[in-house]
Design goal:
The chain is of the alpha+beta class. It folds into three domains: 36-152, Butyryl-Coa Dehydrogenase, subunit A, domain 1 (Orthogonal Bundle), CATH 1.10.540.10; 155-261, Beta Barrel (Butyryl-CoA Dehydrogenase, subunit A, domain 2); 266-412, Butyryl-CoA Dehydrogenase, subunit A, domain 3 (Up-down Bundle), CATH 1.20.140.10. It contains eleven helices and ten strands. The strands form three sheets. Strands 3-6-7-10 form a four-stranded mixed sheet. A four-stranded antiparallel sheet has the order 4-5-9-8, with no helix packed on it. Strand 4 (173-177) and strand 5 (180-187) form a beta hairpin.
Length: 434
Amino acid sequence: MTSPRKPAGTVASVTEPEPETETGATAHARTDDGFDGESEFTARLENFLSDHCSRITDPAEDEGEADGLARTRSFQGALVEARLAGLTYPTHLGGAGLSAQHQEVFTRVSAGWRLPTGPLAISHGMCLPMLNQFGTDEQKATYLPDNISGRSIWCQMFSEPGAGSDVAGLSMRATRDGDEWILDGQKVWTSGAHYCDFGIVVARTDPTLPKHQGLSMFIVDMRSPGIEVRPLVQISGARGFNEVFFSEARIPAANLLGEVNQGWNLAVSMLMFERVSIGAGGGALNARRSPELAALAREMGQASNPVIRQGLADLHIREEIKGYIGQRIRSSVAAGRVPGPEGSIAKLNGADLARRTRDLAMSIIGTAGQAWDGMDPSSDAAARWSSFCISAAGVSIAGGTDEVQRNIIGERVLGLPREPDSFKGAPWQDIPRN
């Protein structure tokens, strides 16, 4: 994790009017545009999900990447046809033009279903809100409809081999040449780059400025000449991450997202959207897992084990708390506001939840989680949950490490002093690097 290619301001905190929400009696009435109110919307949504998805307690289906992408695009197309895609985005941009409350209903009702939207986690959770928040009218009209419908899938490219968690220290260059920008450098750990159509990348446009001030953000067509994607093989054998090399890759000047040298402000916003997506959204690594684990406990004969039962109850409670955190943040995002430090709280909570889910799953499966017999009926579950176990640690790194989140919470929520920086204000080109 296509469509025909399309060529591709001052940062503002709100680009769309705050959606109206339905409360009280109006929540159960029809909206002005004829769309169902909450009760009717819930019924329509449940009917749609029963026709297109399986319950999360049902056995998961194994499918190849090509089949998974095809299914994702088909499912997203069906959502668009049913006016259930991009719920809070304007209709003229491919959305449904509904309220934050409709989105909350969708999130609540769909929590019990296995949605085949994994390849869209970054495309919809990070790139879509960035395009909507900071894109020009032309950029939004060009890219949002295909993004929402899944006809195009997007990735984000921040991390670099020499920068690590210090995103602002990146060294990839972008040089203006007439009506084009020339990109040179390398990105790493880019999820889904091998199947994505477009990407959002941050590059350095002025090395004479301090590292946080000389960055800009761009929209890139991943099939452009000069862009090479190489897979990184993980310990599980999966190839979801990639290195991306830019060698004099030329993109139109109109593909600048936001203003020149204002890329750090946008990068912070995008990281916040990523943290919200990980901590308050769905996604394969951070979906509600207690129903699946309860079914697994019954399958493995562990349903009466008091320790397992306590673990399941604890996980269920924590997932409910995660849901409330997510509800607050999603309402803020739907109202056109970029998430603040609450995104770090959600992300840190999501990482902890992933680890707890991993540990409980391995306790239920037992030794089969380390080695299993392919002929054993439980081997499929063992293989699937072992893969989750290996992947769960990555949630603590993606979107900024747990340590970074604690620093943000400490500084921006608790008011603790920042860590000293001896190079603060120095030009990026004068700062020592590996």
